[in-house]
Batch of 3 targets.
Target 1
Amino acid sequence: MIEVEVTGGTAIVRLAHGKVNALDLELCQAIEATARDLDADQARAVVLTGSGRAFSAGVDLDRVTAGGPGYVADYLPALIGAFQALFDLGKPVVAAVNGHAIAGGCVLAAACDHRVMSAGTIGVPELLVGVPFPAVAIQIMEYALGPVGARRAILDGRNHEPAEALALGFVDEVTEPEHLLDRATVAAERLAAIPADTFRHTKRQLHGDAAVRRDAEPATLALWQTGAADGRIRAFMERTVTSRR
């Protein structure tokens, strides 16, 4: 589900879960646990990437619609936990976006300190699905894109290919697939050259405090449960699948 290899002080973390690394309950729990472990171990930096043709295609909407409100009650806290643990990881974290990074996959990439992309598309279509963002996801998108860029990305909901993603700030570098991990590792090592205590402290300062936004999470959960039950998520999936045929 998650593969970790430490090379030269940098942990290469690869999502390896199904065809597109969709974020289901189990993968979210594994991401949170892996991030917490990496924050405490000896690795100086982390590179996060995906396997196959996707970095992560986002929330597993099939599981959400099949499981309904009961599944969502367990799932949404796990999704928030995965986002928060990655965002809180006090070491340099670089995303090596090897393919599609959609919705929750985009948030995972945005939670990293530096993003290198080689293929696929990236964007946050949550509102098109009909569900709201968890508070930490809003904070992460603002960290990556700034308040104006995050507002535009969230309300627009479009996915962007690498060149456009670079221009809009979703990623910091674009490279060829064969150079992706090398470029990401170089970026991770550059950040890891900063004294670890200084880096961790500064990262916390940059992230700020999302406590006020977290007060809204019960309403977020309720709307996700509604979306799982009233057909809006299923309708989005049907429209999307039809448009790709």
Target 2
Amino acid sequence: MTEPKINALLDAAEPKTLVEGAYRQLHNNIISGIHPPGEKLRVEHLKDQYDVGAGTLREALLMLVTDTLVVAQGQRGFRVAPISLNDLEDITRSRLLIECTALEQSIKHGDENWESTLIAAFHHLSRVEERIAAGATDSTCEWELRNKAFHDALISACPSRWIQYFQSILYKQSERYRRLSILKQPIVRDVHSEHVILYEAAIARDVTRARSALSEHILRTLDGIKKMPIDFFNGNGKKVA
């Protein structure tokens, strides 16, 4: 299975195969911290948990190796990829380079369909953010989907499929850190205001302002995690400046 096909599995409404279903469940459970960084993923145990055969589970784990969320250890099996501040800084630098370029290209090449897609994505994201601001506690999963849809819409007119693909990998990696941080200590920030500024700059075709807004938006996650308790990276590498 090729890398773009692996990425597409996460966007499907329902899994079409057992491998696809196991891949998506494992992916979500790693991103959300159910399988924490560094955990050994024992096929003989997980196959019962996910109700699939050993061969099916190994295929799903190999797909997650491609996503760099799982590490293959030769004959010793698989582990959830570790985390560290150095890794997050590297992911952030790479995401700034790739995603800001993708946004610039998208703004330059975007047509009315791109604008319509972006307007709709921002509208749906704003609605769920309004509910969360009003105290809704059951909208987190919906927010995650809407947030990804908004970021996807921003760069959807970028003509390079490889830039879009690499952005999707980096987004998943940064999402993993952000969601793990929520389990420890949610980062206090006005994310909706950040989205408003980014949306308004993009829809106005203001490349300079849009790049600046996106850069600040991405860097706030890194800055927030730098302020996390020292045990955030425990067992997965020391938290270093």
Target 3
Amino acid sequence: MSENILGTEKISKLFIQFSIPAIISMVIAGVQTIIDGIFLGNFVGQNALASVNIVQPFMQVIIGFSMIISVGSLSFIGRSLGEGKKEEAQNIFKTAFVVITIISLTIVLVGRLFSEEIAVVLGANQVLLEGVAIYTRTIGSFAPLMSLMFLFGFTNRVVGKPELYLRGMILSVIVNVSLDFIFIKQLSLGIRGAAFATGTAYVAAFFIVAPPMFSKKNIVNIFSGKFDPSTIVPMAYNGSSEGVIAIATATTAYLFNMTFMKVAGETGVAAFTTINYISQFGILIMFGISDGIGPILSYNYGYKKYDRLNNTLKLASKVNLVVGVVLFFTLFVLGEELVSLFASGNREILNLAVRGSRIYAFAFLLCGFNIIHSGYFTAIGDAKASIIIAASRGIVFIVLGINILPMIMGMNGVWLTVPFAECMTFIIGMYLVKRSNNLCVSIVK
């Protein structure tokens, strides 16, 4: 693919070419732990299911820093190529490669040495402590190849090979399901088997996305360019909204886990886990659309084709609205059937989760806009606006909501926290986008 296709090809065609693989890839990447939950919930029990959810903030640390570097460098590289700065793009990638390797090795060490301490901090009680510690130690060992898989897979998009990340993700889900079946159902390895299956799945994907990055024929690869410390801060800052998203996901999981642990014990955590898994699936579709249009946005912003920029944003917003409406009705109507995938036979968890799903479903009507807006600002290099949106929907209004709404509405207030956060963020996001569009118009004039 020639470099300037991002600035010349029809927007609708680019949208399909880049977003469809990104959506499928994002969903597959995100459902890895969901697959673990299905097997653990059905073949081990609710405590194993709750343990996997308790450890999610640690998983978000691995994924979060990977996204900060990967998305930050991808946006930087896309804009540099759009401006014709090939050498700068190569230096950014080399720097990202070095930084992500060093940090991921540090995570391996911390996860291995302090797994029990991490479990306690995450809110595990004595019942769940061992399971959380085991999952932390095991999945932490895979951090380097997991992180490089994201970096290489995302970079493949900007050099015209978006299909490789998709192929890697397809292979990873096949590996994960197969190994979960063997390790959990057949060999009864429980939580340790689930973590090993997920880690191995990411490694399988790494070997699919890595070859182009080892080829000197690519415009960016691990051999070209040089380590440039001066690019670390702008790269990390540009991708920092992705870090905020990971922190927000971890914060939400932590606050809800702690709240449900107090209200309903392990059963409450397991109920929230089922809803969290279902909502993740829908939100991952929306994030896939946001990630898919990222290279289109960043290239055309660097190329100063603002009409293409706005057309891409409008198309993505419309598609995400449709997805949100479909997800709303699906969760509202088929909540019991979906929850049963994770908690079959446990009526207490089922009833609690189904009631919550009908309130939680309203979040899907607005979260698509917020996700697109955050991704848009990351792509054009406005990290501040992206951070504001990500922090609003995942931290600020979550903290406010979960501390205020339950006092007014009881358990329903807990479930209403996420829809409340998405609604408030939508208002903020629309203002920021309107301000950005006005700025682009003034630049053109």
